[in-house]
Every structure is written in C-alpha cells, then in structure tokens.
Amino acid sequence: MQRKWKNFSQSFEKCPMFNGISTDEIMDFLICSKAELKQYSKGEIIISQGEKITSIGILVEGKAEAMKIDPHGNAYLAAQISEGNIFADLLAAGEDRECPVTVIATKDSAACMIPWKSVLIRCEKNCHKHNIILENLIKAFSNKFFELFSRIDCLTARKVEDKVLTLLEKYRKDGEDKIKLPFDREGMANYLAIDRSALSRELSRMKDKGIIDYNKNEFVILKKVNI
Amino acid sequence: MQRKWKNFSQSFEKCPMFNGISTDEIMDFLICSKAELKQYSKGEIIISQGEKITSIGILVEGKAEAMKIDPHGNAYLAAQISEGNIFADLLAAGEDRECPVTVIATKDSAACMIPWKSVLIRCEKNCHKHNIILENLIKAFSNKFFELFSRIDCLTARKVEDKVLTLLEKYRKDGEDKIKLPFDREGMANYLAIDRSALSRELSRMKDKGIIDYNKNEFVILKKVNI
DNA sequence: GGTGGTAGGTTGCCAATGCAACGAAAATGG
DNA sequence: CCATTTTCGTTGCATTGGCAACCTACCACC
C-alpha cells in the first residue's frame, strides 16, 4: 500500500502542504487520511465544471490545466497545475460548492486525492504533524487568496498602461531593477484581460515614452509615474 | 472580564465564524483565546496598508471600510465591513504578509481581535467547539476566495455588456427571475471596473435591445444571449 | 542550409468606452 | 412640504483598445 506513494515522494516533498514534514511522516499521513491515487490519460477530465468535490488533490505526476467556459462558450485558461501543486483545495474546504472550472490532464497524470474531512479532523492518534499540515494548507489558502486579490488590482486599472505598471510592481522584488515575468506576451495579455496586440502596442509606446524598458519577459521600470 | 463581550453578543452571534456555537460557548472561546477589545473613533485607522497583522478581527460595533491606494494615489473602496463581519482573517492566517489595504472606521466602532495562533492551536482543554470554529473560519476563507474568483470572471469580460451579464448570472438565484444586486449604479460600475456613465449607457442599450429589463437595482434577463 | 511553426511587433480601422458636463428624478433632512 | 443632496440617465467628444491582417525574428527539426 505504502509502495504506491513512494513512487511520487518527490512530488509530495515539493508540495507546500508538507513543508517541514519528513517523507516518512508524509507517507504515514497519506495512509492515515485514506488518500486515493487516481490516474488520468492525456486529455482526460479530472474535474468537470459544476461538479462537487470533497477531496483535495495533489498532482503527483504529469500536468493539468483548469479551463473556464465563459457565457459565450469560449474556453480559456484559468490556471496551470504542475507536479506538487494542490488543486480543488478551497473547493473541498467550502460547503457544498460547485467547481467553477474544468480541470483537464494535458499529459498522462496521476493525482493523490485526500478527503478534506480527514485533513480537518484530528486523527485518533492525535499526530501533531497533522496540525502542521493543516496550518500549511491554510497558509496556502491565504496565498491563493492574495494572489487573486493582486490580480484584481491589475484588472481594475482602466488603462493598459496602468495595468502593466501594476503588474510589474506586483512582480518587482525588493532591491532588484529587473522584473522577470512568468508569462509570454499572450499569457500576460490574458492575465490582464486585454488584447495581445493592444498590449504589444502599448508596451512599445511605454518604451518610447521612456517609462519602461524590456527585453522578452524581463522588464525595468525607468520612470516612476507616481506614488 | 466576560462582561465586556456580553455587550456585543448580537454581533458575535451573526458572525459566520460562530455558526452552530452557543452564546455561552462563544464567550468561553473569547476568554480562552485571549481576545482583545479595541475601540476606534469615526475616521480612525484600524489597519494601515503595509502593516503586518497576526490577529483576526471581528467588527462588533460600527462600520468600517477597506480602502486601497492605487499607483496614482487615488483611494478607492475595496470592501465594506459591517457588524459581525470578520476582517484581516486571511492576512493573519498567512505568513508574514503585508496588508494590501487601509481599514478605516466610518463610524465609532469596536473590534474584537483574536490572535490567530489561538484559533489554530487547540486549547489545553481540547474543547471541541474550537474545532467547529476553525472549520467555520476555513469555510469563510473558501467563500471569500470564490467571491474574488467570480469577480474576476466579471472583470475579464472584454465588453461592458458581457461584464453586466456575467454579474447578473452571478447574483441570479435558482428559479427566480428577478435579480437583486447589492449595489447602487456607482458601486456596480466600480465592481466591474468601468465608468458609471458608460454603464448607464450600456444598460439602456441592453434594455432597448430587449436583452434585459431593470428598475433600480432589480434586473431581469429577458434574452439568453448564449450558452 | 532549408523549412515550417510559433512568438511577438506593427498598423489601419472603427466600435467601445472613458470623461466631462448637464439635467431630471429620487432621497434625505429640516 | 420645501430645500438640499444624491443618484441616475443622457449626450458630445476624444481617446482607447479590440480586431484582423500582415510581417519579421527566432527556433526546432529535418
């Protein structure tokens, strides 16, 4: 039984949920919490939009994407899920909520599904690692929340220029001039909910005006517009 | 000691954090968790942008607003906090995170500040109500998360018409035609990050085109545009 | 080296929408 | 019940940005 989890120990170790937990303790927890292993072929649906989920998932192998269908029927990318990422966590932790996205495996994948109840309820052995895991999870919730929150800052700016500057500020590391974004242009445009060509145009304009400089996905803010 | 909390029992009772907990048990919890009462005059700052907070707050009296300063120095409203609302919860539950907003009392107010550590750590008495409170809080986290998530759906629509329709769908209750929004026009425009007059214009247009009907903040979707 | 594919810059066009200003209607306060 | 304030709709104007089409540079693969 424990064997199957061992194969994926690397994924578990990089999962923020298990920060500060030894590999052996992780294995103990997985057994104690009655986690299940599910496997998916490339293209297979892991969770459908509208479905109700009571287990949190950890992607232990492969890659997946959360797609959202808008009212016009267009599908667009809501999130990428890589090895070691947690998914469906806030969904399972909520009360009887429908999944707002469809999660699809983009490679052959495996996921570890952990019943939310067994995360929440202390196991009989009262293992104190259990507490740390819950605490880690809650921190992950907080991070996900503030990630959305800061995206909203970008989205509520009324002009492309302001959206870009807000985005750059968000990714600026203290003391560093270079800002490296984790997007290509199309990803950046999607994140900001604007047209790719309009973004390109505006970036050029901002470079001409001397507000920013950039090369591929590395940016520098030259001129503080305001504070 | 317990006296001071009694004055605010109504606020605690409507706080989702204490769902299913009796008033007496709430009082026990507040003492056990070393909660503190803080009072603020109208206009006083409760939390400053950039501050780090380790206690979650419950507004037990008055009213407050979370204001955000954008890069141009404009302040805008990020959230309203009424009696019985929890605030700074995801902030305190995160790790060492700076508050992204400034919280200001808009009336003379009182807040109960509960150290996050004492929510997370089981008290020595191992009171099982403690678990329910934590579970309630996590559900509240989930709700706040999905609230943001669905706002992003509205914000990422490229046209005002789509933003409006997405918003209406979000507030539509199953089986009811009338959709009542908790905004005035200006609030609605802010939520959707568009100009108020542009919203008014578009609403009129949509009424003319027979897509929706409305009266004040009550709306009806007449024509399904798509699915 | 050639070839096909992809990412990203450019541009023209025009509809969408931000902005400002105004007026009407409704709500509030005395 | 009147006066004041607030909310909401309307409109003209200038700007913005979505869309489509095209081009270039770069990369991978043969």
Characterize the overall form of chain A: elongated
- Number of structural domains of chain A: 2
Q: Can you list the strand order of the major beta sheet of chain A? A: 1-8-3-6
Report the β-strand fraction of chain A as a percent range: 15-25%
Based on the coordinates given, report the CATH architecture of the largest domain in chain A. Answer: Sandwich
Q: What is the oligomer described by this structure? A: homodimer
Task: Output the helix-strand order of chain A.
Answer: HHHEEEEEEHEEHHHEHHEE
- Tally of separate helices of chain A: 9
Biggest sheet of chain A, in brief?
4 strands, antiparallel
Distance between the termini of chain A: 58 Å
Structural class of chain A: alpha+beta
Instruction: Report the CATH superfamily of the largest domain in chain A.
Output: Jelly Rolls
- Our Rg estimate of chain A from Cα atoms comes to 20 Å
DSSP, total strands of chain A? 11
Give the chain pair forming the largest contact, with residue counts: A-B, 45 and 46 residues
Share of helical residues of chain A: 40-55%
